[in-house]
Amino acid sequence: MKRRILIGLAIAVAVIAFGVLIFRLAIPPSVPVAEAEMRAIVETLVATGQIEPEGRTVLTAQVAATVTSVEVERGDQVEEDALLLTLDDEEGRLAVEQAEAGVAEARARLDSVVDQGAPTALQDLNQAQQNLEAAEQELQRARQLHEAGVGTRAEVDDRQRQVQNARADVERARAAYREATVDGSAYDEAAAMVERAEAERELARHQLRRYTIRAPDDVTVLTRQVESGTSVQPGEPLIAIAPEGPLDIRITPDERELANLEVGQPVLAITDAYPHRPFEAEVYRIDPSIDAERGAITAYLRIEDPPEYLRADMTTTADIELGRRDDALVVPRVAVRNLTGEQPWVLTFHDNRTRRVDVDIGLQDDHFVEIVDGLDEGDLVVADPEAAPGERLRQGEFFEPDDDDHEPDPAPDTGFPEPPRAQVELPTDEQSHRWITASPPAHVNLQYDHYLPKAREAYL
Predict the structure, then answer these.
(1) Poorest-confidence range of 183-187, 242-246, 331-335, 388-392?
(2) Are 319 and 456 in contact (CB under 8 A)?
(3) Which domains are present in the chain?
(4) Rounded Cα–Cα distance for residues 323 and 310 (Å)
(5) Is the whole-model pTM more than 0.70?
(6) Residue 140: band (very low, low, confident or very high) from pLDDT cuts 50, 70, 90
(7) Which residues contact 185 (CB under 8 A, 6 or more apart)?
C-alpha cells in the first residue's frame, strides 16, 4: 500500500512539474515597460565645494619677531590702513637709529669737503641749481595754464628753453666747482657716501614698517593664526582677510566633466549648515590646468548676491545645470543599457521577443535619458535591466520612475497566474549615479536627495 502511495505522489509531482513547464513555455513572463514620451529634461552636475571669498589674502610675517598685540577678531570689518597687529620692533628701531647716524656722519664729511674747497664756486653751483628749480616750476606752471586754455604754446616753449639754459648753467657751475677743488674727486666721493647712507636709512625705515601689519584695503578678517606672544618667522601666516564683495564656491569635479562645464551655466546651491535655504550662483571660472594626481579640474561658481548666512570655508553642494530641453523624447534611465559606453541601446518588442535597438542619447537627469535617434514617440521599451535580447517576454506593468505615489498600470489580464520572474531593480552605481561625477560624500547625497530637487523645482 505504501509503495502505491509513493508511486502516486511521484506521478502527481511529475505531472505538476510538466504542467508548469508547459505553462511557462506557452505563456512568456511579463516585464515592466516604458513608453518613449516627450517631456522637459534638465541635466545637472552635483559637486561639493567650499565657500571662498573673492580676493582672499593671507598676510604673512616678513621678519622674525614676537607678536606684541592683535587688534582684530575673526569677522571684524576694518577700513583701509587699520592696524591689525604689531610685532616687537626693537631690532627694527635700532637699525633705523644706526642708519640715521650713518647719514649724519656722511653729511658731516661732505660739509668738511665743501668748507675746504672753493666757497665761491660752491655758491655759484648752489645758485645755478636754485635757478634750475625755479625754471622747472615756471615750465610746469606754463603747461598747466596751456592745458587750462589760458596760456599759449609759445609761453611753454619759452619756459622750456629757459630750463634747458638753466641745466647748462648747472653743468658749467659743477665743472667749475670741481676744478676749484682737489680734482673734484673728494666732493664726489663724499656726496656718494651721503647717497648710500640715505638709501640705507630708507631701507631701515622700510624694514621697520614690516613690524606693523595694517589692512591693505577695506576688508573682513576671516581668520587669525597668532596671538600676543607668538613667535613668528618670515613667511609664517598671520591673518587671512578678504575684501567685501561677491563670494565663490570652489569645486573640483572629475576631469571628465571638463567638456560639460561652461562659464555662465546657472547653479543652485545649498550649504550643509542651511540645507533648506538654497541660493543661486553661476559658473564663473574654470582653471585651464588639471590636477594629474587626482584627475580633477578646479572651477569657481560666483555668488553675486551672497545670503547673509554664508561664511568662508562653508561646505556647499552645488547643482550645476549643464543643459536643458523643454521638449525632448525620453525614456527611463533603467531602460537604457551601456549608458556610459560607446553605444547605448534599449530593448523593444518584435514578434513577442525582445530586440536590441541602438540609440543616440542626449541629456540625462536622475530619472530619464533623452533619445536623440533610434526611437519614436510612443515606442515601448523594456524597463528591466535583467532582460536580454531575443527573450520571449510580454508587456507588463508600466514603469514610472518619478511617480512614487502612483500604482503601476496592471498588465493585461490573460486569465492565467503570472509566471515567476526576478524582481525589477533600478540600475546601480555606474548607471544610476553616473551624473554625480564629483562623488560627494554620503551625507551630502542625502541632503541633495531631500532638498535640491525641491529647491530646483521651486526655482524653475
Answers:
(1) 183-187
(2) yes
(3) 32-50+246-459 (2.40.30.170), 55-89+212-243 (2.40.50.100), 91-209 (1.20.120)
(4) 27
(5) no
(6) confident
(7) none
